[in-house]
Every structure is written in structure tokens, then in C-alpha cells.
């Protein structure tokens, strides 16, 4: 195997590991801190648990990072293998376009399915369906970023990125909403452009029937910037051999610190807010994304610790499948069916922690089985 192929393989493992780390907190990892608090009574675990809950409105917790990090990583994958196809004859580009459109439609459809998991199923009445979704936003951000990578120069992509962030800030803060005012970002978002778009243009229902959907129309635009920042990171790693791999990891880490500083400075005039997906929120999440990518790149790729990251790798390799299953499969019922006797046998303070480990174990066993048989389901 050539050195080039080896590097590509390592980078894929690094991306899978970070993607798996991201997904780990959705699968049940977020319950560990609450269980540890029950076991030890240490107040520090309550502080950690607070980071596994979404911000109520303005502000940021690490749980807010899960969604944008996934989008960022989709951009990293594109940046590792950037390709311009606009010079090709249309007959050669057509299969690529068809595949991209299929991925867009499949992810949006899976998002609708996820939204209505654990209920009575997707309603037959379109007006009762929630069309906006996490997977839908991932699909849109990836698709637009892919079109830019395939058809424009890197310079154009950077101008687009900056234009999105500044344009979104200007739109939300300085342009009056029809029948309202400019810059009303008060709790709930009823007076925002986001609510206006979702009320007038978004079909079906919004999340919890709120005035605006956290995965609604307008807030999907700045999410494209998360993917484009990922493209920058991927392109930089691709050129690591030229400047030194450890230097690359260090620069990625430093870039994350700079992005964090920019995000929190911007927060003074444009608050960090996940539901609105503000430009300052983009910068804060991109900052942490760069930092985590640098750490995982150093540990998994440069220190060759793929085995240590194995549990995260198997999650990341089938991330879409296990995410969808988290809405459609009653994993708690399965874990209690398998490990219920063990959980009941341990002392009461230990039971919540054992229950969390059991919940994670049944999912990881399925993912391990898929990975060992090279069943890697992607969209």
C-alpha cells in the first residue's frame, strides 16, 4: 500500500472517530454525569450534566456543538478530496449530480422519519408533518457546500462564507421584519425573520408548534458556513505533508482558538444562539470543531491510536444509521431485556450508571457487528 493510501486511510479513521465521539453523546453518553452524581453526590457532576443540555436561548453548552460539528465534518471530508467538475462535459457530471440530489432527498426524508419516531408514525396529512429536521439541515449544508466546491474556486468559497456570516447578521439585526422591527432576538424568536419565514413559507408544523423551527428555513443558511469551514480544515490537512503534520495539528488548534475569540466578541452585538444559528454561534462551534479535529487528528492519525478510539470509530462509521435508530428503536427496552437482571442486582446507587452502560453496550455491540463485517451504511 502506498504512503498516500495509508494517509487517506488514517484520516478516514480520524474523521470516523471524531464523528463517533460526537454521536456518543446522543446515544446515551449524556446520561453518564447524572448517574455519577447519584453515585457520588459530588456537585461537579451536576455542572458537567448541565453541559449535556441545550441552551434555553442565548448562550452555549457543549451539547449545542453536536449538530454543527457533524456538519463541519461533512465539509472536512469534502476538503480532503476537493474536486472541480465544472470543466467536465455534462454527460460526465450528470451521475455526480444525480447522486448528490439522491443524498439530499434521502437525508431530508430520513429526517422526517426521525421526527415522527416514537409516535403514531408520519401523518398522512401533510399539514401535520414536521419537515424541518437535523438530517435535513445536514443535507442542505452539505449539498450547497458540495456545489460550491465542485463549481467554484477556493477564493469564491471563502468570499461566500464571509458573505453568509455578515449577510445573516445584517439581515437579522438591521432589516425590519414585515409588521415588526429590526433586531428583535428576544426569547422564543417570535419577532425574528426566522419566525416570519417558517410561518409563511415552511410547510407542515414547526418543532413543538413554536413560531420558528430551530431547523427552519432561514437558519439553514448560516449552517452552510460550518460546512465550508470544514472544507478549509480538510484542505489544510490534505497539504499536511508539505508543512509538517504536527505543525498542521498545531495550526488547526490555534485556528480554533481564534474562531472562539471571534465568536465571543461577536456575541456582544449578535448573541450566540443555537435556535437562530447566529453567525457568532457559527464561529464558536467552528472554533471547538477545529480544536477537536486537531486533537483527534494528532491522537488517531499522528500517534496511531486507532485502537484506543475504536468505540468512537465504529459509531462514526455508521453514524446516520445509529442516529436514525435512536428514534425508531427502543434501546432502553432492549438493554433492560438483556442486562436488567444485572442492573437490579447491584446496589441502588450504582444502578443508574449500570443502566447507562447497558444502554450504550447494546448499541455498541450492534455497531461492532456491522463494522467487523464491513457493513458501512452511508447515504
UniProtKB/TrEMBL annotation:
<feature type="transmembrane region" description="Helical">
    <location>
        <begin position="57"/>
        <end position="80"/>
    </location>
</feature>
<feature type="transmembrane region" description="Helical">
    <location>
        <begin position="158"/>
        <end position="177"/>
    </location>
</feature>
<keyword id="KW-0812">Transmembrane</keyword>
<feature type="transmembrane region" description="Helical">
    <location>
        <begin position="129"/>
        <end position="151"/>
    </location>
</feature>
<feature type="transmembrane region" description="Helical">
    <location>
        <begin position="21"/>
        <end position="45"/>
    </location>
</feature>
<feature type="transmembrane region" description="Helical">
    <location>
        <begin position="217"/>
        <end position="237"/>
    </location>
</feature>
<keyword id="KW-1133">Transmembrane helix</keyword>
<feature type="transmembrane region" description="Helical">
    <location>
        <begin position="349"/>
        <end position="371"/>
    </location>
</feature>
<feature type="transmembrane region" description="Helical">
    <location>
        <begin position="278"/>
        <end position="300"/>
    </location>
</feature>
<feature type="transmembrane region" description="Helical">
    <location>
        <begin position="100"/>
        <end position="117"/>
    </location>
</feature>
<feature type="transmembrane region" description="Helical">
    <location>
        <begin position="249"/>
        <end position="266"/>
    </location>
</feature>
<feature type="transmembrane region" description="Helical">
    <location>
        <begin position="309"/>
        <end position="329"/>
    </location>
</feature>
<keyword id="KW-0472">Membrane</keyword>
<protein>
    <submittedName>
        <fullName>Amino acid transporter</fullName>
    </submittedName>
</protein>
